[in-house]
Fold:
Amino acid sequence: MINVFHNKNFTDWKSGEEINQFDLLMVAQVRSSHLEKAFQMTNSVEQGWWIENHGEDLRIDQKLLVQKRGFRSTSVGDVLVIVERQLWYVVSAVGFKQLLPVLKEVENDSPED
Structure:
Protein backbone atom coordinates (compact mmCIF):
# COMPACT_ATOMS: atom_id res chain seq x y z
CA MET A 1 0.00 0.00 0.00
CA ILE A 2 1.23 3.47 -0.88
CA ASN A 3 -0.11 6.59 0.80
CA VAL A 4 -0.09 9.62 -1.50
CA PHE A 5 0.40 13.00 0.18
CA HIS A 6 0.07 16.32 -1.59
CA ASN A 7 2.40 19.04 -0.32
CA LYS A 8 0.61 22.39 -0.02
CA ASN A 9 3.95 24.09 -0.82
CA PHE A 10 4.80 21.89 -3.82
CA THR A 11 5.26 24.85 -6.17
CA ASP A 12 7.97 26.32 -3.92
CA TRP A 13 9.75 23.05 -3.08
CA LYS A 14 13.30 22.62 -4.38
CA SER A 15 15.24 19.37 -4.42
CA GLY A 16 17.18 18.87 -1.22
CA GLU A 17 14.90 21.02 0.92
CA GLU A 18 13.15 19.64 3.97
CA ILE A 19 9.46 18.90 3.74
CA ASN A 20 7.32 19.91 6.69
CA GLN A 21 5.01 17.04 7.66
CA PHE A 22 2.30 19.57 8.58
CA ASP A 23 2.19 20.73 4.95
CA LEU A 24 1.18 17.25 3.75
CA LEU A 25 -2.39 16.14 3.05
CA MET A 26 -3.10 12.46 2.37
CA VAL A 27 -5.24 12.35 -0.79
CA ALA A 28 -5.15 8.67 -1.69
CA GLN A 29 -4.11 5.13 -0.87
CA VAL A 30 -2.96 2.98 -3.77
CA ARG A 31 -2.87 -0.80 -3.50
CA SER A 32 0.62 -1.33 -4.88
CA SER A 33 4.24 -1.21 -3.81
CA HIS A 34 5.33 0.48 -7.05
CA LEU A 35 5.84 4.24 -6.85
CA GLU A 36 5.32 4.64 -10.60
CA LYS A 37 1.86 3.07 -10.37
CA ALA A 38 0.81 5.36 -7.49
CA PHE A 39 2.10 8.39 -9.41
CA GLN A 40 0.28 7.35 -12.58
CA MET A 41 -2.99 6.61 -10.78
CA THR A 42 -3.01 10.05 -9.13
CA ASN A 43 -2.44 12.06 -12.29
CA SER A 44 -5.15 13.50 -14.50
CA VAL A 45 -4.94 13.03 -18.25
CA GLU A 46 -8.36 13.40 -19.89
CA GLN A 47 -10.37 13.74 -16.68
CA GLY A 48 -9.75 14.01 -12.96
CA TRP A 49 -7.85 10.97 -11.67
CA TRP A 50 -10.34 10.57 -8.82
CA ILE A 51 -13.16 10.10 -11.38
CA GLU A 52 -11.57 7.19 -13.23
CA ASN A 53 -12.60 3.74 -12.07
CA HIS A 54 -9.59 2.08 -10.49
CA GLY A 55 -11.70 -0.39 -8.52
CA GLU A 56 -10.17 -1.59 -5.28
CA ASP A 57 -6.68 -0.36 -6.23
CA LEU A 58 -7.40 3.26 -5.29
CA ARG A 59 -8.99 4.64 -2.12
CA ILE A 60 -9.79 8.28 -1.52
CA ASP A 61 -11.54 10.12 1.30
CA GLN A 62 -14.89 11.09 -0.23
CA LYS A 63 -15.55 13.85 2.34
CA LEU A 64 -12.19 15.43 1.56
CA LEU A 65 -12.88 15.12 -2.16
CA VAL A 66 -16.15 17.02 -1.79
CA GLN A 67 -14.54 19.61 0.48
CA LYS A 68 -11.65 20.20 -1.97
CA ARG A 69 -13.89 19.91 -5.07
CA GLY A 70 -11.41 17.54 -6.62
CA PHE A 71 -7.68 17.05 -6.38
CA ARG A 72 -4.76 18.21 -8.46
CA SER A 73 -2.35 15.76 -10.04
CA THR A 74 0.53 14.42 -7.96
CA SER A 75 3.55 16.60 -8.76
CA VAL A 76 7.17 17.34 -7.94
CA GLY A 77 7.44 18.00 -4.21
CA ASP A 78 4.62 15.63 -3.24
CA VAL A 79 5.31 12.59 -1.04
CA LEU A 80 4.64 8.87 -1.51
CA VAL A 81 4.99 6.45 1.42
CA ILE A 82 5.33 2.70 1.00
CA VAL A 83 3.37 1.87 4.14
CA GLU A 84 4.55 -1.67 4.83
CA ARG A 85 8.21 -0.64 4.93
CA GLN A 86 7.71 2.98 6.08
CA LEU A 87 9.79 4.24 3.16
CA TRP A 88 9.17 7.88 2.28
CA TYR A 89 9.84 9.31 -1.20
CA VAL A 90 9.46 12.75 -2.69
CA VAL A 91 8.50 13.13 -6.34
CA SER A 92 11.51 14.66 -8.10
CA ALA A 93 11.90 16.21 -11.53
CA VAL A 94 13.08 12.78 -12.66
CA GLY A 95 11.84 9.83 -10.62
CA PHE A 96 11.66 9.67 -6.84
CA LYS A 97 14.11 10.52 -4.08
CA GLN A 98 14.03 8.67 -0.77
CA LEU A 99 13.46 10.84 2.28
CA LEU A 100 14.66 10.19 5.77
CA PRO A 101 11.63 11.12 7.84
CA VAL A 102 12.51 13.49 10.62
CA LEU A 103 9.80 14.22 13.12
CA LYS A 104 10.31 17.65 14.60
CA GLU A 105 9.46 17.85 18.27
CA VAL A 106 6.83 20.39 19.16
CA GLU A 107 7.85 22.52 22.10
CA ASN A 108 5.68 22.00 25.13
CA ASP A 109 4.48 25.41 26.33
CA SER A 110 2.65 24.05 29.36
CA PRO A 111 3.93 25.23 32.73
CA GLU A 112 6.17 22.87 34.63
CA ASP A 113 5.07 21.51 37.99
Observations:
- The beta strands are 2-7, 24-30, 58-59, 79-82, 87-91, 96-99.
- Residues 2-99 form one domain.
